[in-house]
Amino acid sequence: MQNMEFYHVLNRGVDKRLIFNDKKDYFRFVHDLFEFNDRSKASSNNFYFAQNLERGLKYYDQKKEPRELLVNIHCFALMPNHYHLLLSPVIDGGITKFMTKLNIGYAKYFNEKYQRVGALFQGRFKRFYIENDRHFLFIPYYIHFNPLDLSGHDWRGRKIKNTNDALSFLENYRWSSHLDYLGKKNFPAVTQRGYFLDFFGGEEKYRKSVKEELKNFSIDDSPDYKVMMLE
């Protein structure tokens, strides 16, 4: 793993409530993943983003001012009431700084939109250090397979009955970094994929590995990792 440290970071809505109610909420969180991953203070960004969500994200892909990253975002997946991130700090305290900006910023947007007050997330966030090779090999697939929970596939215990159907679902689910790892530009500016693409051997080999992992994936193959799940 060289000298890079990897952390699985996750959080969910307070009382397991939905944190994404519609497409605009998902887009907003993806936007925030990009915008808040910067040592500089976030700009006033609603003016462009609110006009056209798709164009807004392309605009941020081409943002003129170079960013000074707080973290490397290797992978992410957004679910209706929670999210998963795989992060590496770029600076000391980078994860805490990034997650504070991300959670506060998104909660502010959400509360204003839905005219609510109070905490949106269940505590600050959970952070788990990826401390051995078994977890390192396991976590990118775990994060990218999470959306299968929405499709009815029982993917955690080698119980996938229709691999092609599961693959198709994942390739049509926008709210993760999986498509960008396949080489389908979705939100390419949000993630720093170089490390894991080198590890997988490129986009095509990643695609092939996903199919094999879907057939054989089991949470029981990494029993220590069970403590890192949302309870």
CATH topology of the largest domain: Alpha-Beta Plaits
Order of helices and strands: EHHHEEHEHHHHH
| Structural domains: how many | 2
Total strands: 4
Give the fraction of residues assigned to helices: 40-55%
| Reported CATH architecture of the largest domain | 2-Layer Sandwich
**N-to-C terminal Cα separation, in Å?**
28 Å
What's the pLDDT, averaged over the residues? 86
Strand order of the largest sheet: 2-3-1-4
The stretches of 5 or more residues where confidence is low (pLDDT under 50) are: 46-52
Regarding CATH, which class of the largest domain? Answer: Alpha Beta
Shape descriptor: globular
Q: Estimate what percentage of residues fall within beta strands.
A: 5-15%
Would you write up a description of this structure?
With 231 residues, the chain is an alpha+beta fold. The chain has two domains: 7-128, 2-Layer Sandwich (Alpha-Beta Plaits), CATH 3.30.70; 133-228, no CATH class. It has helices spanning 23-35, 46-49, 53-61, 94-114, 133-145, 163-171, 178-182, 194-200, 203-216; strands spanning 7-12, 71-79, 82-89, 126-129. A hairpin with a 2-residue loop joins β2 and β3 (82-89). α6 (163-171) packs across α9. The two termini are 28 Å apart.
